[in-house]
Amino acid sequence: MSQSTKTLLHKIFVVLTLLALLAFITTAFIRGVASGGPLLIGAFISLAIAFAFKDELKNLTFTIAIFAAVSTAMYYPQYFQQWGSLKLAALITPLLQIIMFGMGTSMSLHDFAGVLKNPRGVFIGVTAHFIIMPLIGFTLSQVSGFPPEIAAGMVLIGCCPNGTASNVISYLAKANLALSVTITAVSTLLSPLLTPLLMHLLAGKLVAIDVQNMMWDIMKMVIFPIIAGLIFNHFLHGRAKWLDKAMPVVSMTGIALIVTVITAAGRDSLLNIGPLLILLVLIHNLAGYTLGYWSGRLFRMPERDCRTMAIEVGMQNGGMASGLAKAMGKIATVGLAPAVFGPLMNITGSTLASWWHRKPIDAGADDATEEPIAEMV
After folding, report:
1. 311, 169 in Cβ contact below 8 A?
2. pLDDT at residue 117 above 80?
3. Rounded to whole angstroms, how far apart are CA atoms 106 and 243?
4. Residues whose CB falls within 8 Å of the CB of residue 152, separated by 6 or more in sequence, listed in order
């Protein structure tokens, strides 16, 4: 498809988005917000398509599609709670396992070798992540005034490791990609121990935490699928090209379904506390970026590493948090904060990456710290 055709299609769908939004606002004013569901959903779908045709914005296509899915779940929750005898919440764990398998297929043992190449950076990054985000989540949960189980969800998202989205954002932000991948890998491997212990320490008074069960749940949902993905990548990478191409699409679809199911289950709570929850989750996310960046500065890390620290601290594995909320049997309460955090961090992360991408890094010491991308694969 030519660039001129893409530009034309982008403009057409932007116009359609504006028309749908105008119709939604008019309908909401005359007949109430509840009557404008199809128009709002259509606006998000049209905007996602518009972004797909714009190179500078296509990284946000999936995030906007998530908002379309969330809007659909808010207006029509009955379609995402149960189909016949099947409760759709039961799909969360297998979907998460598929997503984590996909994460494993995108990694290799070389990613863990980064610990030997830059042990100081990895230690600082992982330590900062598991100190800053849990404490911010705990603090916000205490001042939120939310019911205990919803407040516990804010702590839970803070106690989880990084997700692979942080690696993509690090690449776009011209950060230290090798360090980003290594911190993600190490924090994920440590999560079966650290996440349950931190949850017991910080959220034990809000909701019952079975440390051993949570450890086993993380092993089943995260670690075992990642190991399977690593084995697949080591022996079969490139031999099943259809699967290599399909896994990113399957993973994104799985994330969208998880967020949609959680939103439908917790719709009533979101209607009551939604705006405040979004605000507090945004504060959590932005504070993670800020404190992560300045923790790098505190230890006199190069600019690229400081950018990596900001992204690795501020971005979380929302899918894992959602899976743990499901395992606890509290998807409609504990699962709400993770469901909000995921889409929101993709927007803020992409915005931060775009800003840093245009902001040059001084040549010199920083260049010497950047690992060639080719060494990571």
Report:
1. yes
2. no
3. 12
4. 141, 199, 203, 206, 207, 330, 333, 334
